[in-house]
């Protein structure tokens, strides 16, 4: 039989190599395909704790093995911090060891953001004694301290663990802190209290070796509050309370959200999860990530890439068939949020008392403020508070007669219950002060801009909150793509041959909220960049123009 021309050409071509494996354990086997996967398999990150306690804390920073320092320490919430004085232009050119200091950022994990005043006092005292009085509320309900020495880490763990706190899996390729509604169990309009479910997940699955080598980080959010207050759309897995017409209150399941590289909002699987099934479903989703997640390239290793390839139907099928071994009922349509979910201001609790949401500037507090807050709350009859995914604090169980005296006292601590528009809705990541990946400063830049905007826009009426999120580099720790105004740190030409700190502007992002039907990612406005010095000018112009030109229903 003779071949035609096309067949001849095809036959002459060398055989195409089979497509490269993605490092999916269930499909490609577990042979590590990159250096990170190699050291994670050689020795689980959780095992570094013993070396910190027995060797590194006794022999000092110089004794720390490089892979432990830059890898496994994260499994216990420890990152080296940036050496002071290195400008953002050197971030990409210096080696990691040239950028880092001998001090650590230590992240205290606070699942559901639930704290007692006793716990808060311990964090505040640790900050004052071991962290040069630093403390930042993160946008994932954690509290981060800086300037921590490895010598002090065992004592810090001892004190945290004595009050039921810790740093286990606060960073690393693991299930990170579980975001939970800051008003769980107390809000008058709550659909369901997720507190016990969060406790079940953390007690059973945090710090267990079986889930301590995931392809990358795995983020969880769970809320029973109708404001949908846990930014579930940008988590790897999210459970949002929903009222099923036949099955009662349960959860709507979302998977595959994440920002940073290739930002993507999570998708609903269309299932209804009964409250007593949440921990099993959570385990199923995280197990899919462990077994099928992509491990070849780290920048393709988040769950969102698997979901993008599979789609929600296949994801649901695999979850039901291979992990739950039962079908989940279909869920009702997605609920829409009923009010703003930052919980700032004074609100009534189920029991007739009140909760008060207060805002420091861009999450920055100090050990001194935290201990003073613990004292103040106890003086006003409360022992409970919550951190929020918006760098805020919610104070619980305040009797009516204590509300106004407490608000006045909180003002003196820099914690405002009735903040201005931008003070309320501005968040900022760590930035160049401590972060080795940063290009620009963030916390002070954002604070200065907010103070200036408070003066310039005093008394102005806006139809809904306008969020300003400030990021120190192209990552998205401050969720720039989900803000009305998102700022991505970069250096800009100064017109005289040099460079100055500035930002690429993203506009129009937002998660589901009142007045906004559905979540959407902000868009980069081509060529629209603003220097740090011009930030307040730019935001003022933008807000005034938006208010002047917006249509009646435009957000
Ligand atoms: Fe650091 Fe960049 Fe994250 Fe900011 S966004 S904390 S600069 S990695």
Structural commentary:
With 555 residues, the protein is α+β, with helices and mostly antiparallel strands. It is built from 16 helices and 20 strands. The protein has helices spanning 5-12, 25-28, 35-42, 48-59, 66-70, 96-99, 117-130, 153-162, 195-205, 278-292, 303-324, 367-379, 400-412, 421-425, 443-456, 535-549, and strands at 78-82, 100-108, 114-116, 134-137, 143-148, 175-180, 218-223, 237-244, 248-255, 267-273, 345-348, 354-358, 364-366, 384-387, 393-398, 426-428, 468-471, 485-493, 499-507, 523-531. It has a 5-stranded antiparallel β-sheet. Strands 3-14-15-12-11 form a 5-stranded antiparallel β-sheet. Strand 6, helix 9 and strand 7 (218-223) form a beta-alpha-beta unit. Helix 7 packs antiparallel against helix 12 and helix 9 (195-205) packs across helix 10. It is globular. The structure holds iron/sulfur cluster. The site of iron/sulfur cluster has 11 residues, from loops. Its EC number is 1.8.7.1.
Number of helices: 16
Give the fraction of residues assigned to helices: 25-40%
The value of Rg in angstroms is 24 Å
Bound ligands, named by name, code or SMILES: iron/sulfur cluster
- For the secondary structure, the number of strands is 20
**What oligomeric state do these chains adopt?**
single chain
Based on secondary structure, the structural category is alpha+beta
Q: Report the mean per-residue pLDDT as an integer.
A: 93
Indicate the proportion of strand residues.
Answer: 15-25%
Describe the main β-sheet briefly: 5 strands, antiparallel
Distance between the termini: 69 Å
The global form is globular
Neighbour order of strands in the largest sheet? 1-2-5-4-13
Unreliable stretches (pLDDT < 50, length at least 5) are: 1-17
